[in-house]
Amino acid sequence: MDKELDWSHLSFGYIPTDYNVRCYYRDGKWGDIEVSQSETIDLHIAATCLHYGQEIFEGLKAFRGKDGKVRVFRLEENARRIIESAKGIMMAPVPVELFTEMVKKVVKLNERFVPPYGSGASLYIRPLEIGISAQVGVKPAKEYLFLILVSPVGPYFKEGFKPTNICIMREFDRVAPKGTGRWKVGGNYAASLEAGEKAHSLGYSAVLYLDPKEKKYLDECGPANFFAIKGGKYITPASESILPSITNKSLMQLARDMGIEVEARHIPIEELAEIDEAAACGTAAVASPVAEIDDLDTGVKYVISKDGNPGPVTTALYNRLRAIQLGEEPDVHGWNTIID
Length: 340
Ligand SMILES: *Cc1c(COP(=O)(O)O)cnc(C)c1O
Hints:
It contains six helices and 18 strands. By secondary structure, the chain is of the alpha+beta class. Helix 4 links the parallel strand 9 and strand 10. Helix 2 packs across helix 3 (about 95-110) and helix 5 crosses helix 6. The longest helix is centred in the middle third of the chain and has 16 residues, at about 185-200. The radius of gyration is 20 Å and the shape is globular. The mean pLDDT is about 95. Bound molecules: pyridoxal-5'-phosphate. Pyridoxal-5'-phosphate (PLP) binds near residues 184, 220, 247 and 283. Pyridoxal-5'-phosphate binds near residues 224, 245, 246, 247 and 282.
């Protein structure tokens, strides 16, 4: 870094850092952690990740707190989730201890890229695993590469914490009913690109997917979970095609802490007419409030935010979670890992 980065104006893009960490699985076991300064990998042209999509990933963040300490949010939950993803597409699972050690190491090595407290920026941590065995037959690889790269990312909300419009379209499904939706598989993102680009071109920030089987219930909101506040309750879709968002899980806990009842269940589309607040949630934005939901096939428009502002419950939950990540409020649930 020759000159100081403009932390508050960083985008959610890739900025090179000093190091990444890697570990190979060969002969039935994980090897030693390797520290690399290279931004590329040397990959066999017949590697299974290239041909049959054996790729899974995670996304988490490190924050510089009010006290100057660096905190990684919900490290262990991410470690556990990538194990589920690995099992889902028959890859070698990365043990929780190895995942934890590698995250700590890569953050420590790149500590100068953890944005300062107050900038709104954070260090995005991207673990990924790929099948690397050379084989042309369709079967799981025998060898894997697990690597973690990091990149500083700017505050998600450039124009502040403001609601955006989302849309429902039945033309596309992100995943299949008993497919890979519940795992963090790269291919799910490929499958969502066309719908996402179409929504953007129509002026929407994301697609609110319906359950792929019956198209009756709400599913995910683009690459994020969806929740709504209805009559003082926190409601969020439950289905086997939804990726279990750690942000959603955390917000549900905070809602309970605040005395708000939580319901994870099927939510029929029509129920959108009765909700008071709505948001997409995930690591990138924590919560991204929704102004209006347009059903493009029926022409029905659900106006959620009547005054163009995020609702009070969404705002309170968002502020609470951010405060814990930044060490401004006590971490009563033990969600942060301090890097020292
Ligand atoms: C990563 C992801 C989320 C959000 O999960 P978090 O753990 O909250 O970041 C939601 N939906 C999909 C499809 C995802 O891949």
